[in-house]
Every structure is written in structure tokens, then in C-alpha cells.
Amino acid sequence: MANSQVLQFMQKTAEDESLRLQLEQLMGVGDGNISSAEALDSDELAVLRGEMAPKVAEFAQAHNFSFSAEELITVVESFAKYQAGTISDAEFSKILGISVSRDGAQHTTKVANPLKRLSRYLGKTYLGIDKDAEDE
């Protein structure tokens, strides 16, 4: 799913200082850390929603992430809406492609699939969902 590529790229901006500095220089605003709804400032949101989206998508492709400007805008818009409180956790998770189950189903601690691992990380980080803690 392309949204997962966008999310992986966004998370990489928090982990890789070189990438973050290059992105900051490309966008001309903010600090280059676009890893979460909290990390995105209003200037970064405006730039990523506008004329810089295709350039950021090309920049990401040069760093082995594959997504379109439209997919980037979709994810950024969902972060903005979530930040503003205009969408619920469930709507946010649906847009991002993270499955959220509140039925108490058991989750294993060890996750072999990287996409599932990313989904768990994003669920815990951005949605506050920690199934292991809920099950205790």
C-alpha cells in the first residue's frame, strides 16, 4: 500500500538527520521532521499540501520510497485533520491503512512482517493503542 510508503518515509525523517536536513532545505520551511501529526507544523503542512508535494514525492523516490504526490497529500491531510480533531481515531487509522481492533483480540508480541510492525508502532505512537497493555 502506497500510504505505508508515505508513512515509512515520514518516519524516516525523524530517524535520519541527513534526510531531515535535505528535506528541510527542499521545502524551505520547518525542521524537516514530518514524522507525526505533532511534528508537522503549519508551514510544513501548507507546503506539503501545495506545490512542493510533487517535489517531495520525487525526493522520496530518490531515497527508495515509492508514492505519488496525491498519496502524500492524502496522508498529510489526514494528519492535519487528526491534529485539528476533525476525524476520529478510527477514521484516521482507516485512511492510513492501520487496522484497529478494540474487541480485545490477542496480539502477539513478536511481529515478523515489517508492515505489521509499522502498523503496531503507528497505532501505539499516534493513536495510543497498546493492545499488549489492554490485555493485561
Summarize the structure.
This is Nif11 domain-containing protein. The protein is mostly helical. Mean pLDDT is 78; it is low at 100-112.
Kindly state the number of beta strands.
0
Average pLDDT? 78
Q: From N to C, what is the helix and strand string?
A: HHHHHHHH
SS field, number of helical segments: 8
Q: Which structural class matches the secondary elements?
A: mainly alpha
Distance between the termini: 32 Å
Describe the main β-sheet briefly: none
Give the tally of structural domains: 1
Note the beta-strand portion: under 5%
Gyration radius, rounded: 15 Å
Pick out the low-confidence regions. 100-112
Write the layout of secondary structure elements.
Elements: H1 2-15, H2 17-27, H3 42-49, H4 53-62, H5 69-84, H6 89-96, H7 114-127, H8 131-135
Report on the structure:
The chain is mostly helical. The chain has one domain (2-129). Helices cover 63% and strands 0% of the residues. The chain has eight helices and no strands. The chain has helices at residues 2-15, 17-27, 42-49, 53-62, 69-84, 89-96, 114-127, 131-135. α1 (2-15) crosses α5, α4 (53-62) crosses α5 (69-84) and α5 packs antiparallel against α6 (89-96). The N and C termini lie far apart (32 Å). This is Nif11 domain-containing protein. It comes from Candidatus Synechococcus calcipolaris G9.
